[in-house]
Design brief:
6-stranded parallel beta sheet; elongated; alpha/beta; Rossmann fold
Length: 689
């Protein structure tokens, strides 16, 4: 007989809808001779002990558990057989997925929670949902990850229903507190527009609204009393604001013969037995506990595997150069669950991709319309993220995570691919995507001052000044400026000493980027091109925020000029018409230089062949006083006074002309400079010895 660890995050004697359902399932298990360990998830060590001794775990609600994510990791890592019985929407921080019914709610999901629950569902022996509607919401978000599932009608105590032959005319029952999420406002509006109805509420008023005279309140009571009231009442009112996964009490009201005043957001009413097959519903609910355990036993005996796609085709019907590179991690995820993958690309990218990828087939994007797509068992038009209304979106997949998760566009692509195959990995694998060339004779950095969309350009004259500052600061470096056909004129940079202009095709640009020590550019395709080689990068952002569009490089500094200067949401038409572009013009050369210094401090490795040079942040305003220095930034002011003249003199060298760590003689100066580095006022950059 089965030994079952039943995991639920409240005490066993707590009474709520989920707990009443749990009790019926547990009672059925005991009647079958199973051993049940009920765990209210307050002690992780106890939980792990019970899990190690069980045949199967029933993972019920766990969101209130202090070690929720550690528990998920433990279940998967130790290959413990478990069934996920979802009562709400654990993937959602508020357990309500309210964003689906209110378009004003955006970026509401906790990204880690969302992905943890995908792992929980995909590794489960069986997923149990409360209703067809409840499952459909999960399927929209997770796709094939929740395919291994059943929907379980509310396991209510059918024999305890008390249906009266005489209903109390014009009596309306509302169960629970009057609050927003449960449709409290709708109830009060109904009461105001139907004064002939008398409404009894088993609960309290949680809204700051006057209660109409035709509403009366009763204290919450036992399920037996509730069933009696449902059997006597003519109407049952339930119009939740959120998508109610099931609504156990709605099922009880339906079977009790009450007339239902509701909406499309009640899971119980998404079953095909509603509203006309009451006897079918009664039978399904009565059999639900035994059906649950039958399905659990069946799931434990079978192994579910999903075959790989035989030949998948993936392409982007629109999108710029950078979008092709951002999609690479998602293509890798698709490749892992496919025997063959063909990628359709613009002609100028095929050679680049062939040189840096393995076991992929390529074709020209121009040939898509004339290709027999029936030769592929999976065809994915990845389009662009987000799905744009400005282009023809024929066949473009949906990005359900858009407006829900705050994450980089490449991760939205990965999540989209993960909906298509349960074994697709939704984690982010990291860097690099293409192999870089580090065997360059002389170190150089690359600069791309343009972008396919001109409103993304940081001012060209500031790029010129930035390059001149950096070449003066780093005399052993050269600079290569990459200029495309629609970028700033090469003449702006031609007169700068130690600058090379690269105007070649993408194959030549690839060679150039792959050997760079670091890269500087706008939010553009070339900046993302540098990122696929994992070249440390500084990128300037204006209308396109770095949260979604930052460079792909592991070591990166993003300079976003919009916060604090402009709060207008930059749609295409607004961006085209914008004349001041304060989001980019607010970025000073000093701010850009500071970003480069910080990048080099964090990305260059110090070894026996390097010397650490301390360089002041150029955004710090330094004033010499009689006894020391006054340091000012926008955020802070710091007064440094020195008792020893030698210390002050040595610090002055740092202020005026940088200072190598090996040149510091005064013992008290080292901890001071270390503190300034920690505060971002000074940068510690490795230089070749």
């Amino acid at each position: 007989m089965l030994k079952v660890a039943f995991l639920h995050d409240v005490e066993m004697d707590y009474i709520g809808g989920a707990e009443l359902s749990n009790k019926k399932i547990i009672d059925a298990a005991k009647s079958l001779g199973y051993t049940i360990f009920y765990d209210d998830l307050t002690n992780f060590e106890k939980t792990k002990t019970w899990l190690s001794d069980c045949d199967v775990a029933i993972v019920n609600n766990i969101v209130k558990c202090d070690y929720e994510f550690e528990l998920i990791t433990h279940l998967i890592a130790h290959d413990i057989p478990y069934v996920k019985w979802e009562h709400d929407y654990g993937l959602c921080a508020k357990r309500s997925i309210y964003c689906y019914v209110d378009s004003k709610v955006k970026n509401c999901c906790d990204t880690n929670r969302f992905h943890q629950y995908r792992n929980l569902f995909v590794n489960s022996k069986l997923n149990v949902f409360q209703s067809p509607m409840h499952f459909e919401y999960h399927q929209r978000l997770y796709g094939e990850a929740v395919t291994n599932h059943i929907v379980l009608p509310p396991p209510i105590q059918v024999e305890a229903l008390s249906v009266s032959e005489e209903k109390k005319k014009d009596e309306v029952l509302f169960l629970g507190d009057i609050k927003f999420i449960k449709g409290g406002h709708e109830l009060l509006e109904y009461a105001e527009t139907h004064p002939e109805k008398h409404i009894t509420v088993y609960g309290k008023n949680r809204l700051r609204r006057k209660i109409p005279n035709n509403i009366s309140f009763k204290e919450k009571t036992t399920n037996t009393e509730i069933l009696k009231a449902l059997g006597e009442t003519e109407y049952f009112f339930f119009k939740p604001r959120w998508p109610e996964p099931s609504g156990r009490v709605a099922a009880e009201a339906f079977l009790s013969g009450a007339k239902i005043i509701s909406n499309e957001r009640v899971g119980t009413f998404s079953y095909d037995f509603y509203p006309n097959a009451i006897e079918k519903g009664r039978q399904l609910m009565q059999n639900a506990p035994i059906y649950f355990w039958e399905q659990v036993n069946l799931a434990l005996r079978k192994t579910v595997t999903t075959p790989k796609f035989k030949h998948a085709l993936i392409y982007k019907s629109y999108g710029g150069l950078g979008d092709q590179f951002i999609a690479i991690p998602a293509i890798n995820k698709l490749q892992a669950v496919s025997e063959q993958v063909t990628v359709a690309l613009p002609d100028n990218l095929i050679k680049v991709f062939k040189a840096h990828t393995k076991d992929l087939n390529f074709m020209s994007i121009k040939d898509i319309e004339t290709t027999d797509l029936s030769a592929y068992d999976k065809v994915i038009n990845l389009g662009n993220y987000p799905k744009s209304r400005r282009f023809r979106n024929v066949g473009v997949i949906n990005y359900e995570t858009h407006h829900k998760l705050r994450q980089h566009a490449l991760k939205h692509y990965i999540d989209a691919i993960a909906t298509m195959h349960p074994e697709a990995d939704n984690s982010y694998s990291g860097f690099p995507y293409f192999k870089s060339n580090t065997n360059t004779e002389q170190p150089y950095f690359t600069v791309h001052p343009g972008a396919g969309f001109k409103p993304k350009w940081w001012p060209t004259e500031r790029y010129v000044e930035l390059i001149e500052v950096l070449l003066k600061k780093f005399p052993t470096y050269r600079c290569t400026v990459i200029i495309g056909p629609n970028d700033p004129e090469p003449k702006h940079f031609a007169a700068i000493d130690r600058v090379t202009i690269e105007t070649g095709n993408l194959d030549e640009v690839a060679v150039c980027l792959s050997g760079a020590t670091f890269h500087i550019g706008n939010d553009s395709g070339i900046t993302h091109f540098a990122g696929v080689y994992n070249v440390p990068s500084v990128s300037f952002h204006g209308l396109t925020g770095p949260g979604s569009w930052a460079t792909l490089a592991e070591n990166r500094e993003v300079v976003w000029g919009k916060p604090g200067h402009c709060n207008i949401k930059c749609k295409y038409d607004i961006a085209i018409a914008c004349e001041h572009r304060i989001c980019l013009h607010s970025i000073t050369v000093n701010k850009a230089v500071a970003a480069v210094y910080k990048l080099l401090q964090n990305s260059m490795e110090a070894d026996q062949n390097t010397k650490i040079k301390f360089i002041f942040n150029p955004e710090v305003v330094i004033k010499n006083t009689n006894r020391g220095f006054l340091l000012n930034t926008k955020e802070k002011e710091l007064l440094l006074e020195f008792k020893a003249p030698a210390e002050q003199l040595e610090f002055e060298q740092l202020v005026q002309n940088d200072l190598f760590e090996s040149d510091i003689k005064e013992a008290n100066l080292k901890p001071l400079i270390t503190a300034l580095v920690n505060e971002g006022l000074v940068f510690a950059i490795p230089f070749k010895a």
